[in-house]
Amino acid sequence: QVRLVESGGGLVQAGGSLRLSCAASGIIFSINTMGWYRQTPGKQRELVAAITNGGITNYADSVKGRFTISRDNAKNTVYLQMPRLKPEDTAVFYCSVHLFRGSVYWGQGTQVTVSS
Q1: Cα(37)–Cα(44) distance, integer angstroms
Q2: How far is CA 7 from CA 25, 76, 77, 93, 105, in A?
Q3: Is residue 82 pLDDT above 90, yes or no?
Q4: Where are the alpha helices (DSSP H) in the chain?
């Protein structure tokens, strides 16, 4: 059974930092892309950042140059370092894992709240 466990969300003041982690277990096929998405009430889930098995990264324009995504392939874990947080970063952040065989899995979500 595939399981994604997210951690690191919370409440922080504007300008502060958080680091999200997502550990995947139960996956016996190779992971292709790992990523982070976020969603606010009434809006669609949007990509924040993604990283391929080879380390190629992709960022939303709103976080480019500010957030950093990384992964540890040996641990099937992806991280999102979020410095200089802004109130508009407030959202539920979801981890996603895309396997080479095409399957996609999602974490349960972790709340990030940035106060002004």
Answers
A1: 10
A2: 14, 14, 11, 10, 16
A3: yes
A4: none
